[in-house]
Fold this sequence. Notes:
Blueprint: H1 5-26, E1 44-60, E2 63-76, E3 81-86, E4 92-94, E5 98-102, H2 115-123, H3 132-139, H4 146-161, E6 165-168, H5 171-183, E7 194-197, E8 200-204, E9 208-216, E10 221-224, H6 229-232, E11 235-237, E12 246-247, E13 252-256, E14 264-275, E15 281-283, E16 291-296, E17 298-310, E18 316-323, E19 328-335, E20 341-345, E21 348-352, E22 357-363, E23 369-375, E24 381-387, E25 410-412, H7 430-436, H8 442-460
Parallel strand pairs: 8-17
Antiparallel strand pairs: 1-2, 1-5, 1-6, 2-3, 3-16, 4-25, 5-15, 7-9, 9-13, 10-12, 10-14, 11-13, 14-17, 15-16, 18-19, 19-22, 20-21, 23-24
Helix pairs in contact: 1-7, 1-8, 2-4, 3-5, 4-5
Amino acid sequence: MRRSAGAARLTALAAVSGLVAAGVLSGAGTAAADGTPQAQGGATATINGLKTYGEAVIHGDGVDQRVSAGLFEMSVDGGGTLQTYCVDLHNPTQRDARYQETSWNGTSLGANRDAGKIGWILQNSYPQVNDLAELARRAGVGSLTEQDAAAGTQVAIWRYSDGAKVDAVDPQAEKLADYLQKTAGNLGEPQASLTLDPPAVSGRSGDLLGPVTVHTNADAVAVSAPADAAGSGVRITDKTGKVLTSAKDGSRLYFHVPEAAAAGSAQLTLQGSTTVPVGRAFASDSRSQTQILAGSSESTVSATATATWAAKGAIPAVSARRNCARGGVDVVASNKGDEPFTFELMGTEQTIAAGASRTVTVPLQEDQAYDFTITGPNGFSHRFTGVLDCKTQGAIMTGTTRIHNQPGPATVGGVAAADSTDLAATGGSAITSLIAGVAIGLVVIGGAVLVLLRKREQTDA
């Protein structure tokens, strides 16, 4: 089901207006670089653009949108390269956007009953199956080029990720897409390349704080002690107190805090090299379209965990993660002290009893930016920022337009726009350009409403 172009633009405008209103009421602002991201670890990468692709046509309400479809490439921080497909067809891809490996539940895949079929397609098509003759034989087609294979795979994924009515232009690629769609089974979400559970702990001075359990597919990861370890005396150890410099999957880490240590906090960092599991989601706080991993070189992965300690009183630990199934951000708060921990969260007072923990879900609108800080005793302060991006958009363009794979400020439907002037015709960029002007205020948005209404009247006429 697809909406008319005029209705899609009006819906996008309403969403932005709601974002502004929600931001004013909640104090949420643009995601800040110094806030604590909701990622729980893994690979961080920058998107380079579409590299191997063919063509596809998206159908909706009598309007056809011709786009490129295929594999993106990302450069991993610290070294490594990723290949990804888009699972967010109508949202734009921002040029040089930074992405973080994340769980499916932090993206639109979390509420998608067909996410497991997308996982199957990734494991059973290009580039995981790089023998193109064998892939062609399975699909019952004469032959496949890399471009055909990438386009057919992307089209099949879009049918499940976005429910799109989309066909590959090349007949061979279309046959591959049909084969993958009809044959797809269900696979579970793959293991993260590297995460720590929980990402925040607390306790009394003199105790072992933890455990923090390592989950990774790497053979081993290096453990870095807190930056001020020499001054505070805090060490990272196992349960027996043995100092650790490396860890593996299942390792349980502890913060060893001296009894005489003043109330404070510290952070440990793990880093290693591994191939990121196919099927892992990658999301960006810049509203750049969500990606899913199709292939990985040996890549750098990392994760952090924090510890807070004191001799008495409330001793909190907090972390946050996006929960697309519930439409918000889950804030996990615990208190290992001997007094209640009370804090304010988005205008509401929360109290965690001594020795207790609780998860509080902060409901947010789609595409809403959030920025909140939780404070506590002994200078405790944690800031969380980001953007809730849990849904695929349904906007389509107003005519048949060919979009080329050239560098530009954004891409739409898995393709880089030839220049910024093309974006207004695609529909997928409407919300991005409006969001860029949110800071100007509701006056500008009101003017945009009049412009859009006038355009719709002209179109209807």
